[in-house]
Amino acid sequence: MFYNASSASAFVDRIGVNVHVSWPGVYPYADTAKVISAMNYLGLQNMRDYMNADTVGIYNKLADAGFHFDLMYNQRDNLAGYVTQVHNLEVAHPGSVLTLEGVNEINNNISSAIAWQKDIFTRVNADPVLANKPVIAPSLSGSDPAVYGQLQVGAYSDYGNIHEYWGNGQPAYGWSPSDSTWWWSTWVKDGQISVPGKPVAVTETGISTANAGGGVDPTVQAKEILNAVMDAAKNGAPFTYLYELASSQNAGPSDPESNFGLYNYDWTAKPAAVALHNFTSILTDGGDLSGPAGGLDYAIQGVPQWGGQMLFQEGDGSQDIVVWAEPDIWNEGSRTVVAAPNTPITIDLATAASVAIYDPMKGSAPVQVLGTTSHITFNVTDHPLIVEIKPVSGSSGVAASTSPVGSALSPQALIAPAGGGALVGGGGADTLQGDANGVNSLRGMGGDDVIYGGSQFNDVNGNVGNDTIFGSSRSGDSLMGGQGGDLIDASQATGHNMINGNKGADTILGGLGGDTLYGGQGDDRIIGGPGADWISGDLGNDTLSGGGGADTFRAFPNMGQDQVTDFDPAEGDRVQIDAGLSYSVSVAGADTVVTTPGGQLVLAGVQLSSTTGWLVAS
Question: What's the pLDDT score for residue 410?
Answer without folding.
Answer: 59
